[in-house]
């Protein structure tokens, strides 16, 4: 079993992290006080616990209700820049070398920001955070994924925004929010547009809802990756553990190397997995799916990339070789151009593990 310190010391790659799910409790408290937003509790320590407790109530809908308080404090250029800067600094401090951070611009317009103004603010925050991390001796590359809310009707507009910013820090598109009742096919026009533009996207699917949602995301919408996708396990027959049998959809996902953006702690909180030890990540990794490990919402899950890895190491006995496999998998699956991904794998990810094993000899 690896310690948190050992895990912090090796390079990690994060593909599924929500900007509004990773705000520091202190920052939520400070901005809320300044703008007069009422919080359920005021002390930052208590606030961190409140988010985790409220988000841990067992359903995705309850989990998502907590975002009201983070989104509320991210409505101006100044506050979005701050949250984005702190996000990158925190990730870099945890040893994340590449991160795709998603958020939904349409939720940040209540104080008069425009969609482009909001994206520019996050871009500025990422640039400041990257520079601050660099000064502290940490190198990180951070990119945005623009999310559209699946219960709203702005997905085509947000997809257009993502394409407009494709050379300005945005690498992809996503849909998120409550899954039940809002199938991905509601947003087919956005996905078809992205295909025509040769753009990349992931879809939150197979979290609260099972195989039909994954099937739609892949076969109707053509998603490059699956946000969570954890319920693909429902299409794997493990009644004979020595010879697991894959159904057609699971086989397709594995054959096509479709990346699964698994988020262990988040899945336990929303009831998608009973516990970390029972999380399908172990089986899916053993079966050779393109598994990646992610944080989802660091605030709501009181977690970090290193902590997620530590929990898996504890539950499944993973060592540095496994962490390296997860990190290379994630870097291969990133929405960065191929040559940049390759350079990250060869120059940053792999050397980080090689040096590490030499150190421990
Ligand atoms: O795990 C999740 N499943 C579905 N939607 C989510 C999850 N985590 C966060 N969001 C939603 O995505 C929005 C943009 O970041 C958040 O405001 C939240 O409503
Ligand atoms: Zn998510």
From TrEMBL:
NCBIfam families: aden_deam, PRK09358.1-2. The keyword Zinc applies. GO terms for molecular function: 2'-deoxyadenosine deaminase activity; adenosine deaminase activity; zinc ion binding. The gene is add. Transmembrane segments: none annotated. Its EC number is 3.5.4.4. It comes from Mumia flava. The active site is at residue 207. Zn(2+) binds at residues 16, 18, 204, 296. It is an enzyme of class 3 (hydrolase). One of its GO terms (biological process) is nucleotide metabolic process. Its cofactor is Zn(2+). The lineage of its organism: Bacteria, Bacillati, Actinomycetota, Actinomycetes, Propionibacteriales. Belongs to the metallo-dependent hydrolases superfamily. Adenosine and AMP deaminases family. Adenosine deaminase subfamily. The keyword Metal-binding applies. Catalyzes the hydrolytic deamination of adenosine and 2-deoxyadenosine. The record marks 228 as: Important for catalytic activity. Residues 11-350 form the Adenosine deaminase domain. Binds 1 zinc ion per subunit. This is Adenosine deaminase.
């Amino acid at each position: 079993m690896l310690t948190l310190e050992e895990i912090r010391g090796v390079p990690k790659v994060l593909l599924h992290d929500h900007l509004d799910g990773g705000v520091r409790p202190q920052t939520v408290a400070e901005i809320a006080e300044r703008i007069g937003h009422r919080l359920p509790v005021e002390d930052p320590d208590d606030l961190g616990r409140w988010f985790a407790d409220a988000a841990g109530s067992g359903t995705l809908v309850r989990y998502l209700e907590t975002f009201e308080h983070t989104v509320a404090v991210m409505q101006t250029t100044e506050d979005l820049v701050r949250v984005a800067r702190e996000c990158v600094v925190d990730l870099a401090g945890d040893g994340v070398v590449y991160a795709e951070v998603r958020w939904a611009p349409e939720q940040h317009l209540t104080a008069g920001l425009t969609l482009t103004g909001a994206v520019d603010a996050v871009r500025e925050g990422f640039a400041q955070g990257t520079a601050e991390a660099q000064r502290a001796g940490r190198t990180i590359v951070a990119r945005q994924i623009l999310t559209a809310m699946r219960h709203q009707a702005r997905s085509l507009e947000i997809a257009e925004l993502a394409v407009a910013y494709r050379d300005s820090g945005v690498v992809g598109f996503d849909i998120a929010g409550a899954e039940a009742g809002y199938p991905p096919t509601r947003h087919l026009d956005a996905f078809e547009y992205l295909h025509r533009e040769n753009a990349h996207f992931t879809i939150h699917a197979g979290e609260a809802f099972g195989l039909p949602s994954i099937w739609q995301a892949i076969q109707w919408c053509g998603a490059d990756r699956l946000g969570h996708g954890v319920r693909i396990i429902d299409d794997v027959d493990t009644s004979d553990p020595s010879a697991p049998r894959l159904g057609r959809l699971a086989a397709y996902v594995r054959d096509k190397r479709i990346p699964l953006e698994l988020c262990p702690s988040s899945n336990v909180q929303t009831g998608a997995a009973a516990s970390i030890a029972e999380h399908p990540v172990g089986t899916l990794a053993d079966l050779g799916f393109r598994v990646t490990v992610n944080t989802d919402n660091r605030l709501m899950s009181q977690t970090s990339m290193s902590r997620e890895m530590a929990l898996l190491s504890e539950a499944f006995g993973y060592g540095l070789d496994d962490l390296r496999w997860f990190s290379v998998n994630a870097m291969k699956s990133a929405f960065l151009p191929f040559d940049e991904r390759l350079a990250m794998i060869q120059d940053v990810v792999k050397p980080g593990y090689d040096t590490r094993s030499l150190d421990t000899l």
